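In this supplementary section we document a worked example of the pipeline. Step one takes a protein sequence of length 671 as its only input; no multiple sequence alignment statistics are reported here. Step two produces a three-dimensional model, which step three serialises into structure tokens for compact storage. The input and output of this example are shown verbatim.
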Amino acid sequence: MRKLLSWILSGTICGGAFAASIDISGPKTIVADKIEYDIKTESIQTSGNTEITNKSGQRMTLRDSYISKDGTALDGDDIKIWLGQHVYLDAESITRDGDITIARHATFTACDGCDAYGNAWTISATTVRHNMATRMLRFYNPVFWVYGIPTLWLPVFEMPDPGVKHKTGFLMPDFESTNKMGTMINIPFYVYISDVQDLTVTLAYLTQENPLFKLEHRLNGEHSEYRTRGSFTRNRDGENRWHIFNNDIIELGEYARASIFLERTSDKTYLQKYGFYNSQPYLDSGGRLELFGQSGYVVADAHVFQELRSNGGRYSVPSGNILPNIRGVYQSAPIYQETYLTFGADVLGISGSGAASQRVIGDARVISPWTLWGGNRITASLSTRYDIYNFDNTEMVDGSEFTGLKNRFLPSGYLEWGLPLYRPATTWTQVLEPRARITAIPHMSTDQFALNNDSAGAFLSDATLFSDKRFSGFDLWENGTFADYGMRWAAFNNTSGKTVEVFLGQTYDFTDQNGTDPNSGFHNGASDYVGRVGYNNMKWLDLSSRFRISKSDYALRHMETSGRIGNSGTYLSLGHIWSQRFIDAQTLGKDTNEATIGAGLKLTSRWSVQWNGIYNLTDSGFHSHTGGLFYNHPCYYMSAQYRRDNSIKDDYVGTTTYQFRFGMSIDGQRY
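The serialised model returned by step three reads:
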């Protein structure tokens, strides 16, 4: 009697029918035209229309039901079970005994209400058997219907129920053509290991080549994550070809993090030929350890490279393996007003092609920023740096090979001035900021010891002005006193967020440079002019461009431009890079002239097309272009894409490849 009293009963008279609502153990509810409770068996029997809602919120409607004491036994007629927002199982009758639920003459769909003109797909079956222990649905004599049209019959079909997030089994295959290897049919098999670990094994069948095996493993720890991808094949020529990519991140507490990365392949063309290539010029393997503090950090990493370019070139970067690279920086608390100190140390080892070098750098700097009357900003800095190099059969700048120690000492300092002038207004706020910096460095007989270490040279742009170091890497030194100066104007719309920016600047070397590269933009004395312009209306238009103009005749020397028009669905994106190339100070070579184009068109709320291309204007031809038709439905998705690659390298000759993908979605989860 106590259990009966623990149920909350309420009744109303409505149209002559008695309606009762019973709350079972709190979250479970039963609503029916009539409810009868058997005290002896502690079971429930309903008459007429019945609705049952379980603890997880799933809903069931049926007629004339029977529910046992603990809910393990259930039967009824005209049953519809709602398993998700758009997922239901409809049956003439249903019987449940323990973990087994059997529905007869049933229909299952995960697309209820997704389309006004019908469900995208349904499965009808003479019997549907659900095992709660394994969370599997088995359909007997199923028929697949697409928008009410029967399309496929199978004797038996099995799938996990919608409540299953991970389940071992085959995934939806996809198809693609390959580089002169016929059609590739990818058949993926998903393996669920635990809630934090799984893997996908894929057999790729090729019509004109031996099969390809792919593997992807995922593991998420409490403070780490591990990702591994790889593939293997033994082709018809008897060659073993493979690749492995691995990336692990391990949090070592609040102030430390470790990374391990591995990228290796059997040869230079395997990734490109089998579709794993993303235009990377080399593969990078190694590890990294990062230590963080409130006032400093230390990063130690190592890199082992694998070259993928056909002709790496004498001065290609990277030119050797980096073992190790350690960089540490510490910044002090303010020692007076806003004045502070920074200390740095750097250790680098490079080895490869029978040569090796090790470098130790120590540097210290004091920086003192001041804000004076009228908004004038003054920043003064003094620094010192000491380098020690150990070379082993390393090529020097004079062409000789050297083994032994070399060292150098470099004091420097700069004084920078800026004056931001603000003009606030109701709609637009404008800023005009002149800026200048003079950097004093002793003149050296040479700006570097050896070739092919960590410096890739110098390239003047708006980003190098007012920076502590104009040249890339540490081996290439600044050489002599120079000045940077420029003007920036910007405007901000206070209502819409629109922004406009214009910058123009130049650098001046007071000391003649040794062998200045004519393509760099630096000259003895005044450099070329550099600048940037940009506009963003924060809605559908974003444009930016950076450029370099000759100091002598104001001719354009270099320009990089990017723009995007439209929104996320329908858009046009453009990118262009042009650079005039000199063989020497007087002789012009072949220009760098390349454009990237991207476009997307949202045809409907679900259909869209996209296209992207890289066009070499110098050679008048596409390097590559891709395009596709995409359809995203709440219940399924599909795409048809192509890729055209015109590159030629060793046994790889670019061609057009195609790919078709189809998958199902149940309550937002893709299968």
